[in-house]
Amino acid sequence: MYNLLKGKRGIIFGALDSKSIAWKVAERAHEEGATFVLTNAPVALRLGTISELADKTGSQVIPADATSMMDLENLIDKSMEILGGKIDFVLHSIGMSVNVRRGNHYTNQDYNFTKTGWDVSALSFHRLMSMLYKKDAMNEWGSVVALTYMAAQRVFPDYNDMADNKAYLESVARSFGYFFGRDKKVRVNTISQSPTPTTAGSGVKGFDGFIAYAEEMSPLGNATALECADYTISLFSDLTKKVTLQNLFHDGGFSNMGVSTAIMDTFMENYTGKEDSSEEAKTKK
After folding, report:
1. Non-local CB neighbours of 1 within 8 Å, separated by 6+ positions
2. Are strands 87-92 and 60-61 parallel, antiparallel or unpaired?
3. How is the chain split among helix, strand and coil, in percent rounded to 5?
4. Which CATH class is domain 9-284?
5. Which residue has the higher pLDDT, 31 or 203?
6. Is the pTM value of this prediction over 0.85?
7. In angstroms, rounded to a whole number, what is the distance separating the alpha carbons of residues 249 and 251?
8. Strand order through the sheet with 187-193
9. What pLDDT is attached to residue 280?
10. Is 260:215 a contact under the CB 8 Å cutoff?
């Protein structure tokens, strides 16, 4: 450990269970000397095991619906009271698609579900930063990080409306990040993480395929939840004071790949097999 966050105070959203990236970030932040408050929606707190994480890290848990300005105001006020001052870092690790949960195809959405997912997954990021900004709750050179995925830039058919939510999230990071940086000297970035086998991610159809494909495509392989936590800690630290408005790919190189030899070899094996089958069919005719 390097004491990278010694004396720093934060708020961590979205730790559901030990598979969560937010859970790993909390563990690493604690190891690096930070104190923080944990928060999640009341329903998520009932479903998860966040109390174990709170005990492990000496943290308090404050329930908050990230779509409620009243809840966010209460969260920020109580956090500063508990932690004894302004906030140095915030992690937004929130995402949910009702359409995905209900099995609605992207081309046949229930738009009320779409609005709910957008509010929870993306607009909540604007709400959060708006409240932090208005209350002047962040210390100078503080850092706000949100987790995203490359479906914001490229087509992953089964990622559904979450792709649109992530695209909006990344835009908010840039646009609000400008004002937060100019006026408060606060950094705002997003991390585009490898597909990671979290409880939330497993709800996406074909997610195991995303993981396997990315593993074969990436020269360094997929980044784990713990490795993402390490990267997040670096963005919370003073070592990255001038990094802001960035969407930072943490994906083993996947984002810059066209095709890998492993993927091409597999494709050619299957393609050759199809060709052979086709020739056999022609011969029999």
Report:
1. 31, 32, 33
2. unpaired
3. 55, 15, 30
4. alpha beta
5. 31
6. yes
7. 6
8. 60-61, 35-39, 9-13, 87-92, 138-148, 187-193, 247-250
9. 59
10. no
